[in-house]
Structures are given as C-alpha cells and as structure tokens.
C-alpha cells in the first residue's frame, strides 16, 4: 500500500483514497462530513479567461484615480499607488510595505500565476515550473487582501462625505470589477484538477 496514494481529511485526519471526481458531485469525509472536494465545470477555461480579465483590470485599478476629493477650494485625486507613496513620505514604512504587498504585488502575482498555469494546461504545454508555480499560487491566496483595502475605501468615503465633495474615478470602478473578477477566479480554480493535469503533463 503506497501512502502517497492517500489524502488526509483536514478536519479529522482520516486517510482516504481519493476517487476520480465527477463534475458537479461533492466528496465528503465519511467520518466527519467535511467537504473534501467539489469539482468545478470548465475550471481551466474559466480560470484562463478570468486571469486575462484580471490582468487587464489591475493596472487601471492601481494607477488611475479612485476618488477625487474637493475641499476648501482645493481638489486632489487619489490612486492606490499614490496612497503607498504617501505612506512612505510619512515615514510609515511598515504600513506602506504591507499595503503594497497585500493590495498590489500579491494580487498581481496571483493573477499572473493563475494565467501562466491555466494557459499551459489549456494548451497542453508541459513546463518544469508548473508544480512550483502551483505551490506559489496556493500561498498567494493567504496574502492578497483586496477586500480589506476596499473596506478601507468605503470607510474613508463615509468619513469624508460630510466635509468634502467626492468624485469617484475610473480607477474605483476598475478596482470593484477587479475585486469581483478575483473572487470569481478563486472560486473557479479547481486545485485538485489542476494538480492532476500538471501530473499528467509531466509524464
């Protein structure tokens, strides 16, 4: 009996022999009922398409104005990137690095890795880097926090609305669209299927 052919339930550590999944069916642990697997339809195709959409959206979301603020006769536009620069200028280096990594770099890497992996699987192009890229991608999910930044934008808008005139820029619409696309991307990526396809390409 080869132990590498088994998988452990994350909840109760029961060793299970993973069966070939059927699209639309769910696999539950027979001991605790934990949802082990839920194969997704057209996972590779959807991940490929959503990655392209995310790559298109991430640049205007980061570089174009999110909110224009008009107050006391002056006006200023704010972008995601200018917010990071402002934090550096205020010597808040730790916060600036954290915002840059979680709101700009890691989401970009997440999209790029998803695009690279899904493109290789979609076109059946083997690469010795696929397994490494997949491991990196699984770690990116823990660090990309666009939702937290969006919550900060909403809080800032609520606080500023009473004392200034706000104008929503194209960057904000791109950011909201990016948030939706990355959420769909995370739900469309079937990690079990991707690992299986990577293993087949390496044979």
TrEMBL record:
Domain of life, per lineage: Bacteria
Pfam families on file: PqiA
Residue spans crossing the bilayer: 48-72, 92-123, 143-162, 168-186
Keyword terms of this UniProt record: Membrane, Transmembrane, Transmembrane helix
InterPro entries xref list: PqiA-like
Name used for this protein in its record: Paraquat-inducible protein A
Organism from which the protein derives: Methylobacter tundripaludum (strain ATCC BAA-1195 / DSM 17260 / SV96)
